[in-house]
Amino acid sequence: MNLNRRDFLRLSAGAGSGTALGGLLSAGVNLAPSLAAAQELRIKDAKTTPSICPYCSVGCATLVHTSNGKIINIEGDARSPHNEGCLCPKGAAIFQLHVNPNRPTQVLHRDPGATDWEVWDLDRAMTRVAQLVKQTRDETFIEKAENGKLVNMTSAIFALGGATLEIEFNHIHQKLMRGMGIVAIENQARI
Ligand code: SF4
Q: Which atom of ligand 1 is nearest to the CA of 56?
């Protein structure tokens, strides 16, 4: 379908929803080829690196496009036998995991009852976490259960690992937690 400027404006206004896109779509204009061409142009000279989505144990295959050392696009890898180029909504947003001006880049700490966040340097935060873990473990450690069975555990600490931490991290993380006797461990890596 060929559209001149006047047709474009008329269809856009007639869409009711008020969007130009809505007008074009309701007029039966197929935007897929234009969108595909625009996407192709954007990644034309980019380097393509196969990778996987870090969010869950499905491990959908992705292609990461980089230009001048910066990620410019991430999409599903059509060669993958199990996701065949598709990504779920979470996986489709992986790009924003890497390129996101809203992502916090500093450690923020808020005292109990406080209303404001304070910026901490990483060493201070890690030291504080280590102190609290040691103190809590020492105070709550159970060597033997009531029936005399050796358990070497504490139920006072809960370990929560996010799927945005990759599977390798979660694997090491749960080993550390189990080594400390922590039994309440959850992450999305399903290891
Ligand atoms: S989060 Fe979605 S895209 Fe990522 S691996 Fe899991 S199913 Fe695949």
A: 6
Q: Which CATH class is domain 47-98?
A: mainly beta
Q: Is 92 a pocket residue for ligand 1 (Cβ < 6 Å)?
A: no
**Which CA distances in Å does 120 have to 108, 109, 128, 133?**
6, 7, 11, 18
Pairwise CA distance, residues 51 & 5, whole Å: 43
88 Cβ below 6 A of ligand 1: yes
- 174, 167 Cβ separation under 8 angstroms: no
What integer pLDDT is reported at residue 26 of this predicted model?
A: 64
Query: In which residue ranges of the chain is CATH 2.20.25.90 found?
Result: 47-98
pTM exceeds 0.70 for this model: no
Q: What DSSP element (H or E) covers 52?
A: strand 47-52
Give Cα 59 to chain centroid, integer Å.
13
Residues of the chain below pLDDT 50: 12-18
Using a 10 angstrom Cβ sphere, with 0-12 exposed, 13-18 middle and 19 or more buried, the burial of residue 3 is middle
